[in-house]
Amino acid sequence: MLVSSKRRRGLVKRGALSLLIAVGLSGCGFDTTQSALNPAGTVAQIQARMITSSFWIMMVVSVVVFSALIVAIIRFRAKPGQKTLPPQTEGNNRIEFLWTVTPAIILALMMIGTINQSFVLGKIYPASQALQVDVTGHQFWWQFQYPSANITTANELHIPVGEKVELILTSADVMHSFWVPRLGGKTDLIPGRTNYMWIEASQPGIYHGQCAEFCGTGHADMRITVDAEPPARYAVWVQSMTHPVSVPPKSSTLAYQGYLDFASAGCESCHTIGGTNFAGAVGPNLTDLSDRLMIAANLIPNTLANREAWIHDPQAVKPGALMPNLHLPSNEVTAIATYLGTLK
Ligand code: CUA
Q1: Among 149, 175, 174, 169, which Cα is nearest to 160's?
Q2: 114: exposed, middle or buried (C-beta count within 10 Å: 0-12, 13-18, 19+)?
Q3: What is the predicted pLDDT for the residue at 29?
Q4: Which atom of ligand 1 sits closest to the CA of residue 139?
Q5: Global pTM?
Q6: What is the DSSP letter of 272?
Q7: Residue (of 148, 135, 144) closest to 196 by Cα position
Q8: In terms of DSSP bridges, do strands 131-138 and 165-171 run parallel, antiparallel, or are they unpaired?
Q9: According to the 3-state scheme, what is the secondary structure of 309-335?
Q10: Angle in degrees, 0-180, between the axes of helices 330-340 and 304-312, rounded to the nearest 10
Q11: pLDDT band at 2 (very low <50, low <70, confident <90, very high)
Q12: I need a surface site. Which of 36, 121, 275, 304 has the fewest CB within 10 A?
């Protein structure tokens, strides 16, 4: 008796521990800033609805199946003193029919719903119906181009709220995957191929995302920010991007020095800044940089100290970053970081 209650307690403890480990490993959390279950746009809402409806259908199936199992275990267990097997039956056409047809109907209904929504989600909207944005994946940052406004920017995608945005996706090097969970599912960016996805934010806000296809050392640090703005504020952004403030006046000594150093240090051979003759096409376009919340593909906040740290030694900030360490003296680093902070 003593042994069995000890064993029972052991079992309970082990059970509780396994449950705890299972919950821990499942990655359950309450942070919904990057959760597909907390949708903020039409596409994500459709997808979340599909996830929750299949979840509840499966829950009903589980409850029915496990209830039947428990009833069978209790009702048909060996009675005390029973020595012989109960009468053995085999094949019950009615039950066989029921458990073949019922799952088939459930799966067919789910399939019809899924195929139906696949057409909605897979639609490619032309320029007359959606804002077109060309998205190019790079190791390890994002390029966003708006052909209609002749804008190129990096890492922070600005979109107007309540408007469809057609993303035209490709890659400059290896495979990447665009994923902003609160706005929609993942779509791969493949070199030499064009993929399409559309998104539509239903409320203004900052939505975080992440490259979702392993693309090298900097993969985990290849982040996306989507800034969904009311149309009027979005128009202001377009205006600032197309009329950038890029050359500081000579009176702002340090920023102007940074402007000169940006060219002499060779930064211009990789980066474009609208409104100047810096037109490198290798690295992110830096036009309007002071308006970005983050730098280094949304890894660190856009502060003077962080810009300095980044220019001083990019690999120390973001391992695997392809921006070279130019070993610039710290006065030049400060001047360039100050200049970049004036780009509006
Ligand atoms: Cu780009 Cu992972």
Answers
A1: 149
A2: exposed
A3: 58
A4: 1
A5: 0.82
A6: B
A7: 135
A8: parallel
A9: HHHHCHHHHCCCCCCCCCCCCHHHHHH
A10: 130
A11: very low
A12: 304
Largest CA distance in the chain: 102
Q: Is residue 305 within 8 Å of 248, Cβ to Cβ?
A: no
**Ligand 1 nearest-atom number relative to CA 137:** 1
Give the amino acid at 321: A
Cα–Cα–Cα angle for 292, 266, 253, rounded to 5 degrees = 65
Banded pLDDT at 304 (limits 50, 70, 90): very high
**Ligand 1 atom closest to the CA of 213, numbered from 1:** 2
- The structure tokens 């320029």 sit at 127
223 lines ligand 1 (CB under 6 A): no
The helix/strand/coil state of 11 is helix
Query: What pLDDT, in 10s, does the model give residues 191-236?
Result: 999 999 999 999 999 999 999 999 999 999 999 999 999 999 999 9
Residue with the smallest CA separation from ligand 1 atom 1 is 176
165 lines ligand 1 (CB under 6 A): no
Q: From the CA of 220, give the closest atom in ligand 1.
A: 2
Alpha-carbon torsion, ordered 280, 173, 154, 312, to 10 deg? -70
Residue pair 153/237 in contact (Cβ under 8 Å)? The answer is no
213 lines ligand 1 (CB under 6 A): yes
Q: Which domains does the chain have, with CATH numbers?
A: 32-87+122-242 (2.60.40.420), 253-340 (2.60.40.420)
* pLDDT digits 0-9 by tens, 155-188: 999 999 999 999 999 999 999 999 999 999 999 9
C-alpha torsion angle, residues 147, 240, 209, 171 (rounded to 10) = 30
Ligand 1 contacts CB of residue 137 (under 6 A): yes
Fill in the amino acid letter for 280: G
Distance of CA 171 to the CA centre of its chain: 16
Contact 311, 283 (CB under 8 A): no
CA atoms within 13 A on the CB side of 145: 12
